[in-house]
Amino acid sequence: MEGSEELESSLLTQPWASVCFGESAFLAKAWFRDTGYILLISDLSSVWYESADAEAVGQRTKELNKRLTVQVSSFLHRLRNLMCLLLAGQPDTATSFSCHHAAGGLSLHVKSEISGLPIYWAFHCCPAPVEMVSRHLVRPLIRMSLVLQYQVQKLASLLLQKDAEIEDYRESGATLSRDRLQTEPFQEEAFQQNFMAESLPRICGAGEGQAFASALQQLYAAVTQQEAKQARKRQRSEDIEGPAPAAETTGHTHPPSPSQEDETASSSKGTTPASSPAQKPRLPAAKAKPKKAKGLFS
């Protein structure tokens, strides 16, 4: 469905947020508009999603809210506000969320109110396809790790330059006005060893719910925006160039070898390549070179 594809493309640049339902921690992201929504949620063991258009939202609204009469766009706007508050870590105090696992899927139940009337909603999520998981989680995380690695290398290089600058000041007779500001020269290898031994266990023990801190959310959004930009560029290029023309049928499964090309050219003149020595000087130099390399190791 074209609308569903547009929703997923918009969802791509939305960062993951940590949410908790009871004692269970999840990562989630969502995108809403007047004609539907898409939700992606994961407990880092499985990934589920739901994409619903306005018709499906209207039907489910009637089933869950018998006493409520509301336009679908208004109901979607209310849902969007509730989910935005949840993903921002500031859930509405009058709203409750709960999740339930059922038959390979995940249901997220919402209870809130509009103008004093209770409203109910349920996201019925099914397992996300592998391509969606790769696009929204695996590929961005790989790119983020490469960006962070490059950033660390640049910072290490900058520290070494700063140490050289400080050493030059010292050799010129400069001294610190406050001894507490003095630092040891940066040793990259020692820093990496200490980080792995001391900082890494503490970071990994922080819990899966903290997988995307605010700085990482910004990096995720920046990385996925670049991917979306490249995808649009590729699409425009394909639209301009159009489909590749079909190859002409020549009777050859593969292109003719250089020797076959020589034989064809010679036979059209009524001679064979080796029968008339007088014809050899007339062969173009470009055709003489390919004949020398008839094997990979010749």
Distinct helical segment count: 8
Mean of residue pLDDT? 81
State the strand order across the main sheet. Answer: 1-2-3-4-7-6-5
H/E series: HEEEEHHEEEHHHHH
Outline:
The protein is α+β, with helices and mostly antiparallel strands and 298 residues long.
Itemize the secondary structure elements and their pairings.
Layout: H1 2-12, E1 17-21, E2 24-33, E3 36-42, E4 47-53, H2 54-64, H3 72-87, E5 96-102, E6 105-114, E7 117-127, H4 130-171, H5 188-204, H6 214-241, H7 258-267, H8 285-292
Antiparallel strand pairs: 1-2, 2-3, 3-4, 4-7, 5-6, 6-7
Helix pairs in contact: 2-3, 4-6
Could you please describe the fold and organization of this structure?
The chain is α+β, with helices and mostly antiparallel strands and 298 residues long. 48% of the residues lie in helices and 19% in strands. It is built from eight helices and seven strands, in the order αββββααβββααααα. Strands 1-2-3-4-7-6-5 form a seven-stranded antiparallel sheet. The chain is elongated and about 85 Å long. 16% of the residues are buried.
